[in-house]
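== Fold encoding ==
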Amino acid sequence: MSDTVLKNAVTRDVVTLKSPHPTRKRNALVFTTEIPAGAAGSPLHRHSHLTGTLEVLEGCVTFQVGKTERVLAAGASMSVRSKTLHGFCDASNSPAVLRRTATPGVGFEQFLRGMQASAEAGRANAAGMPRDPRRLPRLLLDTNLHFSGLPMGLQRVLFSAFAALAPDTTH
């Protein structure tokens, strides 16, 4: 099995899913993300059941965990436990390459593929988010991802209601 490259036409991120891909819920997904200089990256969010690591291979990123913000340069890494608010961006003038691990990885892989597919089909806004308000909740449920601001339980209920209205979202 070979690596899978997902190029997002909107955000210009390039995600490379490293093989082997996770086949069971407990398996990790290992992938690299190439992000362009000045990219918005990933907004503040949390995962109810996912832990992750991020290692900067090239360039530097601004990484926020909770209320703590740090600039990480090549060679530095961070770990994030489930339910921890986190996000990152490339606030520099140079592109960055990150190696990331998500456990469990199956749902996260579906999320990455779904975001890329929306962008490729022209169904994403300028920030790379699906325009259809029913599709994004389905993707968020796949990876147990929640935004900051609203309680996670309330978001799950709202996401489930919108996702139930969505057409088949086979990734």
